[in-house]
Specification:
Layout (H helix, E strand, L loop, with lengths): L6 E5 L5 E2 L8 E2 L3 H12 L5 E4 L8 H9 L6 E7 L5 H14 L5 E5 L4 H6 L6 H20 L6 E2 L4 E2 L15 E4 L3 H10 L2 E5 L3 H16 L8 E10 L3 H11 L18 H7 L1 H12 L5 E3 L2 E2 L12 E4 L1 H14 L3 E5 L3 H12 L16
Parallel strand pairs: 1-4, 1-15, 4-5, 5-6, 6-9, 9-10, 10-11, 11-14, 11-15
Antiparallel strand pairs: 2-3, 7-8, 12-13, 13-14
Helix pairs in contact: 1-12, 3-5, 5-6, 6-7, 7-11
Length: 371
């Protein structure tokens, strides 16, 4: 397994930032100036992509991505696309246009939604199964439209398309697709379509086993060696291990377990998320297993999952300890890391200046290449 060709990405918190997840007064509201500071740190910090999230409290991902694509030189927006929310012909045209106008700086993050309750609140009545069916079909249609010299003829379960579009993407054959999820639906679609399958935090030995499972699935689509793997992790890094752990516990000081800071329904959202999201169930199972210190590894901490849905596992330690822990995931088969930390501009600068140098001469010159 190669230990080179690594890519690092960061997260843009368009639902707001904070200096303490347990203190509502520490919340940093959304604003263009807050986003500007984060984006500047990421664009100048050696990161290859910037994740634009989607939920009811986030600013609209494609608009934000387009805005910052025009104001940056290096980083590529990783734009979240939720199945069933956007006609696939329009999505193909939007993404190809943005890819052309940004000079090939675009990645697409495929999302099925965190829960049935959340998608129904948006007016999307599809079940989880149907959302993944639509995701599969939407990606198929986009790929066909991007590859075709004339009109396509797609007759599917959910879509019928007989269109030809321009432009085609600048990145060939198409921009990289990312997908994160733990359900059987997610794993199968990732095996079929993903450039990078993103895992939420877990133990490196568990990730190694999951990678082999997805490679076996990908082999059915003749993609066993094409699919790449990454980790979606939080970063808490300080000059010393003691300082890092003090910061970790300070970050959730005063919090109430499962009163989710990143969901409009707070504690009321938990049961719905548990029912629908395999990936969230795994993260919360790790939280329960991790004991009072909330550790699943000497430098992997579940504490943020007490107050945040989604990717809450954090790497905690000194710069060298953080780098060494990430290298355990590289040894397991990962080559990309989609990261975040609080507050996001400061955490990006710390990672860029103190951790990324440990990976000098091992970084990819570009984005993960779709195949």
């Amino acid at each position: 397994m190669s230990r080179d060709g690594l890519t690092f990405g960061w997260f843009l918190p368009t639902s707001g930032d904070t200096t303490c997840l347990g203190d509502p007064a520490a919340r940093i509201p959304q604003s263009s100036s807050v986003f500007d500071e984060i984006v500047e740190a990421v664009d100048n910090g050696g990161f290859k992509y910037l994740l634009m999230p989607v939920n009811a409290t986030c600013w609209e991902a494609t608009v934000v991505a387009s805005y910052y694509a025009a104001r940056t030189q290096n980083v590529a927006p990783l734009v979240a696309l939720r199945s069933g929310y956007c006609n696939p012909t329009l999505a193909a045209k939007m993404f190809a246009t943005l890819d052309q106008m940004s000079g090939g700086r675009l990645c697409i993050n495929l999302i099925a939604g965190i829960s049935d309750d959340d998608t129904r609140a948006d007016g999307i009545m599809d079940s989880k199964k149907v959302r993944y069916e639509k995701m599969d079909e939407e990606v198929e249609i986009m790929k066909k439209l991007w590859a075709a010299s004339g009109s396509i003829d797609h007759q599917g379960k959910h879509y019928t398309v007989s269109q030809a579009i321009e432009p085609k993407p600048l990145q060939q054959p198409f921009p990289p697709f990312f997908l994160g999820g733990g359900s059987d639906y997610a794993l199968e679609i990732s095996a079929k379509h993903s450039t990078v399958h993103l895992f939420w935090g877990d133990k490196p030995e568990v990730i190694k086993t999951k990678i082999e499972d997805i490679r076996k699935r990908a082999a059915r689509y003749e993609r066993r060696d094409d699919i790449q793997f990454g980790m979606r992790l939080q970063i808490i890094c300080r000059d010393t291990e003691e300082e890092a752990w003090n910061e970790a516990y300070r970050l959730i000081e005063g919090s109430t377990k499962f009163n989710l800071a990143n969901n409009r329904l707070g504690a009321n959202a938990v049961e719905g998320i548990r029912k629908t999201s395999e990936a969230n169930r795994r993260v919360w199972d790790l939280l329960e297993e991790s004991g009072q210190e909330m550790k699943i590894h000497p430098h992997l901490w579940t504490g943020i999952s007490t107050v945040r849905a989604g990717a809450g596992i954090a790497v905690v330690g000194s710069p060298k300890q953080v780098a060494n822990t990430l290298d355990e995931f590289v040894d397991a088969g990962c080559s990309s890391f989609c990261l975040s930390g609080y507050p996001h501009a400061e955490a990006a600068r710390i990672f860029s200046s103190k951790v990324m140098p440990h990976f000098e001469n091992r970084l990819s010159a570009g984005l993960p290449r779709a195949a």
